[in-house]
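Quick sanity check, STAS domain-containing protein:
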Amino acid sequence: MAAPGDRLEPPPLPEYSCSYVVSRPVYNELAFQQQYEQRPKERKTLRENLTLLPILDWLPKYQIKEWLLSDIISGVSTGLVGTLQGMAYALLAAVPVGYGLYSAFFPILTYFIFGTSRHISVGPFPVVSLMVGSVVLSMAPDEHFLVSSSNRTALNTTLIDFAARDAARVLIASTLTLLVGIIQLIFGGLQIGFIVRYLADPLVGGFTTAAAFQVLVSQLKIVLNVSTKNYNGILSIIYTLIEIFQNIGNTNLADFIAGLLTIIICMAVKELNDRFKHKIPVPIPIEVIVTIAATAISYGVDLEKNYNAGIVKSIPSGFLPPAMPSVSLFSEMLTASFSISVVAYAIAVSVGKVYAIKHDYTIDGNQEFIAFGISNIFSGLFSCFVATTALSRTAVQESTGGKTQVAGIISAGVVMIAIVALGKLLEPLQKSVLAAVVIANLKGMFMQVCDVPHLWRQNKTDAVIWVFTCMASIILGLDLGLLAGLVFGFLTVVLRVQFPSWNSLGSIPSTDIYKSTKNYKNIEELEGILRFSSPIFYGNVDGLKKCIKSTVQRNVPKFSTKVIFWWNGIISGAGSSNNAFEPDEDIENPEEPDIPTKEIEIQVDWNSELPVKVNVPKVPIHSLVLDCGAVSFLDVVGVRSLRVIVKEFQRIDVNVYFASLQDHVIEKLEKCGFFNDNNIRKDIFFMTVHDAVLHLQNQVKSQEVQDSILETIALIQDCKDPLELMEAEMIEEELDVQDEV
C-alpha cells in the first residue's frame, strides 16, 4: 500500500499484440471508380421528409396498463405547476394573469397531435415570455393610454385607462403569437430545422443567463411594488434598475415580505426535491402550496385594503371565443418575431433532445417546427402568448413518471379546471407572490455562470462567446443581444477557418500511418507531404498558398539574383529548369565580381500565369502530395486556386497529387471545371496518402532504371564501333591485371 502523500503512478497502457497485413493495389481515384461503381443518390421528397401526424405512430402502441397511471399522476402534478407558472409568466408578457392560463392550455392540445417529443411540457417559458413582453411594452406603453380625470381631491388628474391598455396588449401578444407560429410553420415546411445548430451551447448559455437577469429585474419591481417607466431597447435594464433604486423608499412592505418569504421557501423546498428525488416519489408542488397559502392570507387579512398590496384582482372565468388577431400589426413586429420563433424552437428542441436521449427515442427537428408553428397559430386565435417548453415543468412531467403526451393532455385538463372553476378564488392573490415564483425558478439559469471557468479551461473561444453574448443581451436587449451573439459566433468560426492549421507529414516506419513531423519524434521525414486541415474557400486560399510556399521554400536553399525568375512581376523562387525556359549561359559560374548577390524570400502570385522564358532554380522535390482528408467543401475560388497551383507546378516539373478527398469534394471539382484542362486528370487523386507515396516510390524506381538504360545507350552511341568499345574495355582489364602482378 502506498504511503500517505505518495504520488500514485498511472496504470500502464495496454499493449496490443495484434497486427494486420493488407494486400491491395495502389488506388487513385480514377482506378477506384472504375472498379467500384458509385451508388446513385436517393433524395427524399418534401412529403417523405414530413411526418404530419406523429400521433399515429405512437398512440396505437400506447400501453394502457403500464403507462396510464403514471401519465395521470404526472399530468396532475404538471398541471398544477403549469397553472401557476402560466399566471406568473403572464406578468413577463405584460398581459393580465388570466391570459397566462389560456397560454398554458391551448398549445398542449395541438402539440399532442403534431409533436414528436413524449416528455416536454408545452406552454409559457420565462425567456420567451419576456421577449414577448418587450414587444408588447414597446408597442403599447402606458403613455398611450393616459386619460384626464377630475374629482374633488384632484382636478385634471392624468390617469391610465387600464381596460383599454390591457385589451391592446392582449391583442398585440396574440398577434405576435400568430406571426411566430406562421414563421415556424414556414421554417418547418422548408426543412430548415438545422437553423438551431447555429445556436451553440455557449451562445444559448450566455443568452439565457442574460435573459434570467432581465427577468429578475422585471420582477423585482413587482416584488417591491415600485412603479417605474417601461423601458425598452439599449440599456433599458440599466435605466430600470436606476429607477427602482431611486424609488426604493416607496416599497410596499406587505408585498416585499410576501415575495421574499415565497422566494426563500420555494428555493429551499426545490433544493430538498433535488437532493431527495430518489426517495420522494413525487416532487413537492411547493409553488402550488405557497400560492394557496398566500391567497388565503391575503383574503383573510384583506391586504389590498389594509396595506395597499398589489393583487391580481380580476381573472376571467371560462374561455374566450376565438378572435382573429390584427394582421395589420405584422409589419411592426416582424423582426422581433423571427428571433422569438427561433429562440422558442431552440429551447424546446434542446430540452426535448435531452429526454429523447435519456429514454432512447428520437425527435424530428423539422416536425417540431411544424408542431410549434401550428400550436402558436392555434393559440394566437384564443388570446394566448407564445408557447415553447419550460425546463422546470418538463422536469416535473418526466420525474413523476410521465411516459407520453397523454400526461400533457391530462395537465391541460387540470389547467382547464383552474380556468373554469378556480379563477375567481385566486383573485386575492398578491402579484408579488407570482413574481417571487418566477424568480425562484431562475436558479438553474443563474447557475450557468459556474460553467464559464470550466468552459475557459476547455475552450477559450467558447468561453468568450458565452461572456460576449451574455453582456450584449444585458446591454442591448434580448433581440439585439442574440443577433450580436450570433454574429460574434460566426466571426470566431470564420477566423478559425480563415487561419487553419497545416502540417508537414512524415511516415511511421513500416506502416501506412502519416503524422505531423512537428508533433512526433522518430518519424521518417518525407519532403513535400502536406495536410491542410480546413475547407478551401475564398477566405483562406491565401493560407493554403502560404503553407505550400513555406514547404517549397524550406526545401530550396538561398540563391542569388542571377537565378531568380519573375512571376507576374513578383519575385518567386520555386522551380526547376525545363525545356520551356531559356537557360542562363553563366548559371554554372555565379561568382561574377560585377554583379552583386543578395538573399531573397519566395513570393508567389498564384493567380497569374507563369512566363515562358524565365530562369528557374532547381527544386530538390519532384512531387507535392496534399492530404485533403479534412477538406469538407470547396468554393469556386478554392477550385480555381488549386487548378492554378497544379498547372504552375507542372510547368516547373513538380507534380502535385491529392489524397483522401471525399466524394462530394471531387464532385465539386468536376462541376467547377477542374478537369477541363487535358493536363489535369483524375489519376493525380489517390485514396490515401500511402497510395500516393507508393505510387511516387514506384515512379522513382522506374525512372532510375530508365535513366540507367539511357546512360548505357548514350555511351554506346558515343563510340563509333561497339566492338572497338568492347576491345578497349578488354585491353584495359588486361592492363589492370598486369599492373597487379
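Posting the structure with no commentary besides this: The first helix runs from residue 29 to 35.
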